[in-house]
């Protein structure tokens, strides 16, 4: 474990494993922490994996923000500089995919490759949020008792830490199409438990909803001269069509859809995920990445 200090004095938890060219991981949320232990082990043979907890979250220093994409891009650059400091490959998951894309658009000269996992594209949130909400309730509602308990906990104005974790596990279990193993996967996500930073989550979600549909973002994507791999799980409860606009805008892109996976594809199809990431990183290092828009 290594602490990285940002220019405004906030301490960020980071961890490095593996060997090879650096691959920096951006976890999901907002307001969560790095849960990439399994993923790091999968790709450690082909990359030096750098993990970190975003400001105010997980093992990083608790603080009052600011909770903006611009601030988080600067934090990400501090981690890159500390562990780099040259060009890196970036992998972001969910909200972390949006953050990694924002960083790449801001600093394309510092990124040799981008892996965009289970993000929600560059269109307006209305294009995907209502179907996502319906799918979420449908997955949890397969067990009426679990749905009733989740709603009970969600409606409480105050919750204990134990109840917060229980609520999170019920919610996260909806991310896995293998319903028999979903509770187990959700428990592993919550262990260790650091508590969700709700203010961070709310502020960044609000910002993304207001700004991510900006036509300037699409124009910047069209100019981006960085190879990009998009990885989706076919059974993600967020409609994968939300990512189509991003795929169409990128000039150097490959998209892989793992047919048996959900929102955390490395958990349910580790072999397919490792093959996609390792092959892409090898191609990116050699400069052999080509534009391929077919789903695998």
UniProtKB/TrEMBL annotation:
Family from the record: Belongs to the peptidase S33 family.
Taxonomic path: Bacteria, Bacillati, Actinomycetota, Actinomycetes, Kitasatosporales
Source organism (scientific name): Streptomyces vulcanius
Name of protein: Alpha/beta fold hydrolase
GO MF, one example: hydrolase activity
Origin: domain of life: Bacteria
Family matches, as PANTHER family: HYDROLASE, PUTATIVE (AFU_ORTHOLOGUE AFUA_2G14860)-RELATED, MONOACYLGLYCEROL LIPASE
InterPro entries: AB_hydrolase_1 (IPR000073), AB_hydrolase_fold (IPR029058), AB_hydrolase_sf (IPR050266), Peptidase_S33 (IPR002410)
Keywords on record: Hydrolase
Residue ranges constituting the AB hydrolase-1 domain according to the UniProt record: 22-269
């Amino acid at each position: 474990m290594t602490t990285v200090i940002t220019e405004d004095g906030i301490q960020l938890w980071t961890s490095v494993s593996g060997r090879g060219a650096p691959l920096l991981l951006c976890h999901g949320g907002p307001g969560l922490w790095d849960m990439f232990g399994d993923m790091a082990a999968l790709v450690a043979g082909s990359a030096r994996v750098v993990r970190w907890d975003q400001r105010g979250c997980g093992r990083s220093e608790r603080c009052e923000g600011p909770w903006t994409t611009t601030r988080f891009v600067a934090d990400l650059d501090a981690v890159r500089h500390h562990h780099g400091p040259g060009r890196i490959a970036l992998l972001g998951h969910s909200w972390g995919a949006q953050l990694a894309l924002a960083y790449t658009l801001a600093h394309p000269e510092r990124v040799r490759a981008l892996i965009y996992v289970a993000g929600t594209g560059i269109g307006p949130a209305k294009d995907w949020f209502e179907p996502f909400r319906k799918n979420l309730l449908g997955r949890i509602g397969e067990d009426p008792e679990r749905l009733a308990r989740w709603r009970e906990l969600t409606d409480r104005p105050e919750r204990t830490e134990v109840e917060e974790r229980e609520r999170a596990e019920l919610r996260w279990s909806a991310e896995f199409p293998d319903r028999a193993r979903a509770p187990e996967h959700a428990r592993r996500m919550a262990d260790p438990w650091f508590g969700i930073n709700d203010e961070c989550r709310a502020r960044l979600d609000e910002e993304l909803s207001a700004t991510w549909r900006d036509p300037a973002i699409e124009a910047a994507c069209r100019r981006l001269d960085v190879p990009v791999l998009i990885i989706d799980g076919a059974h993600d409860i967020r409609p994968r069509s939300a990512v189509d606009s991003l795929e169409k805008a990128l000039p150097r892109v490959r998209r892989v859809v793992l047919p048996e996976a959900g929102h955390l594809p490395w958990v349910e199809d580790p072999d397919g995920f490792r093959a996609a990431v390792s092959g892409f990183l090898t191609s990116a290092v050699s400069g052999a990445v080509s534009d391929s828009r077919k789903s695998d």
